[in-house]
Design brief:
By secondary structure, the chain is mostly helical. Helix content is 59%, strand content 0%. Helix 2 (22-29) crosses helix 3.
């Protein structure tokens, strides 16, 4: 995780987006309400099986909850830019033609 407490912020956010209560999530996870509260308040981190169940319940990738985001650190910026141009500008050979007059 990026920060020790990033998980609980993401958990609360996705729960609220789904319109679920804390009790709803605890029931779906088959854990005690207090155990869930400890997760959402950042007192504990989830076990792997709980993390898998959360990702299924909220239709999110596990990496969403771990705070991992793609990084461009290892990419050559110009190489990436050229590849994107090749992929997307082929679809619109003359960009001026794509703009409505």
């Amino acid at each position: 995780m990026n920060t020790p407490n990033a998980f609980h912020f993401l958990l609360k956010q996705v729960r609220e987006e789904q319109g679920m209560t804390k009790v709803d999530v605890a029931k779906n996870l088959k854990i005690a309400r207090q155990t869930y509260l400890d997760l959402e308040y950042g007192k504990t981190l989830p076990r792997l099986d709980t993390l898998i169940t959360l990702s299924t319940l909220f239709n999110k990738n596990i990496s969403y909850f771990t705070g991992e985001r793609p990084s461009l650190d290892n990419f050559d910026t110009m190489e990436l830019f050229e590849e994107l141009q090749q992929r997307y500008l082929k679809k619109v050979p003359n960009i001026a033609d794509a703009i409505p007059h």
